[in-house]
Specification:
The protein has 193 residues and is an alpha+beta fold. It has seven helices and seven strands. α2 (50-61) packs across α5 (140-154) and α5 packs across α6.
């Protein structure tokens, strides 16, 4: 009986946090402030698990993410597919999806001029992983300095391109890009002012 009560309390806590998240996201979406989002395009699906996310957060932000304490929370919404994260005084979401990011990758690839390799990477990608700021009053440059280092830590070897959502820009991924994501000045290093 006690087991069922604990399960019920856990479910209610998750639903309550989810409702708070949805309410906050709607309020933030109504603002005119852009939010940072970077998508890693992957050549094949990648299974990201909570311990790896926690390690990436520890490397990127410092501190202990082994438990949900002191404003550092990692909450699986859908195990291995979606995580809500609270850290550095803000909210983030990590998505891991085993399908093409673009509804029609061929059309996107055909629009790329002057980089046949990048165009081919867009055609070939079969999965994506993103780390997004969920609304923030911080300048974009600061937001990218938060998400970039996490992605630099978690990007698997299958990463073949970056998509900077707010700018609508595709960038080929390599070890140099990984270092640019680590920051500081991630936004500038990726070619934006």
């Amino acid at each position: 009986m006690m087991k069922y009560i604990l399960i019920g309390v856990a479910v209610l806590a998750i639903v309550g946090l989810g409702l708070l998240f949805v309410r906050k996201r709607k309020r933030l979406a109504a603002s005119d402030k852009p939010s940072a989002s970077i998508v890693l395009l992957l050549s094949e699906p990648f299974k990201v698990e909570e311990p790896a996310i926690r390690r990436a957060l520890e490397e990127a932000f410092g501190g202990d993410f082994s438990t949900n304490v002191d404003g550092r929370i990692v909450l699986p919404v859908i195990e291995t597919a979606q995580y809500m994260i609270w850290a550095q005084g803000g909210a983030f979401i990590l998505h891991n999806v085993p399908s093409s990011y673009f509804p029609n990758s061929e059309v996107v690839a055909d629009s790329i001029q002057g980089d046949a390799g990048l165009a081919q990477n867009i055609r070939d990608h079969k999965a994506w992983l993103s780390f997004d700021v969920l609304g923030s009053e911080r300048p974009l440059s600061e937001q990218y300095d938060l998400i970039g280092p996490v992605l630099a830590e978690i990007a698997p070897k299958q990463t073949i391109a970056l998509f900077v959502v707010e700018k609508g820009v595709l960038i080929r991924f390599d070890s140099e890009r990984r270092e640019q994501l680590r920051g500081p000045d991630t936004y500038k290093k990726l070619g934006f002012e």
